[in-house]
Amino acid sequence: MHLILLITVSMPLATAEPDGPRGDRPNILFIYTDDHSAAAVGCYGSVINQTPHMDRIAAGGMRFDNAFCTNGICAPCRAVVLTGTHSHVNGLMDNGDVFDGSQPTFPQLLQQSGYETALIGKWHLKTDPTGFDHWAVLPGQGDYYNPDFITPEGTVRDQGYVTDLVTDRSINWLEGEWDREQPFLLMCQHKAPHRSWMPGPDHLDLYADVDIPEPPTLFDDYATRASAAHDQEMEIDRHMYLHYDLKIEPTEQERAELAGPDRWIKGMRERLTPEQLAAWDAAFRDRNDAFREANLQGRDLVRWKYQRYIKNYLRCIASVDDNVGRLLDWLDEQGLAENTIVVYSSDQGFFLGEHGWYDKRFMYEPSLRTPLLVRWPGTVAAGSTEDALVQNLDLAQTFLDAAGVESPDRMQGASLRPLLEGRNQGPWRDSIYYEYFEEGIHNVQPHRGVRTDRWKLIEYPGRGEWELFDMHEDPHEVNNLAKVAEHAETRRQLEAELRRLQVVYGVPDGS
Ligand code: CA
Asked: Which of 17, 80, 372, 394 has its Cα between 20 and 30 A from that of 31?
């Protein structure tokens, strides 16, 4: 079996001084999406879509093949990225919590060191952003069409599609406000491809006449899994809403009886301009009529829902990819590509029908794993890959290291710079720690766990249940080995490692 090191591995801290004048320090373009599974990125081997512009980042830099989040929902991931600390340290445990913007964040530290800083797009942390010279953020989850942006001067509504608009605002800031005397940090943070997966006008008909491959676990029965997998409410079959999620326009009678998130379809449609609504209906109406005519049942209905869901999800990503291309082109045209670090990542992954699910939260691979692509000419070899275990926890220290700024001691990750430089970096972590706290929507039990390169142990402390997966033998995580005698010693070692990580990361006793 895989040996687990039961020693504390000390991570190198960034202590270097800036390499030269401030203007020589690299610009940082951080493109961050919401719920973008690595399984829907071309360079990660996607069998369901293509992302030529994201692949450009990988081709010119490094693809991290074992990148993970620490707490798989939207707002907590953002707080982890900003602070370089786990959720139990930065205080933002779930989507209901409010971010304390007075704690140290890497944008604040970069700003103090002379970077010009901007944040555009999804924020989701409730308090006003701190550490940015310029910011314009979507309220909450934001809207796909004609979204509002909160700015220091008030709230304004932009007309158009959100992914285009976030990019427009990003380029406008670079062209109009960045003074080019100092390096920039631009956090370009998309709403897409978050629920409710509304494609933009350029991609309404993409995939119209093709079938997207289904994942092998679309009809998972959760045998051997802990009770949490049975109790969740995120199944494509039973918990996906026909109108809000699946874009079936309600009939008069259905409109009078809308329940749950389906009630939001009215506001969704009203937000579109007449022209946008006409294009939307032209794309969906005939297909919706055909769906009603077919009167699908059972697995045929699940399969139809999967196709409708995944196509809209991938259409949202197609727009992100186009807009990634716009930013890369802009850097090329301005002669800035050579001195700009470009990072593409997502807050966490997403279930694209695996286990029959949508959404995220669970420590299972589709949700835990994130795309992480880094292009840094002169530092990162083009077309390189790295399989070390890395997390969103590491990004703050990586950016600070790149800028020659020392990381505060409270930060809990490690700079990825040695990995990026392809140096023999010495010891790296052998395991990652995961924690999830939110009880509410989608009914996922709080849990925590440890993952090594081969094994994953998940604890559901509220229920005294465990799951153990051998990801080499069981990559789809359907065979829970927690109670299998043959693996008792592996489980014991992993439990010891989990407890060790809880001490290392300062998890409060009794939590
Ligand atoms: Ca998310």
From this structure: 17
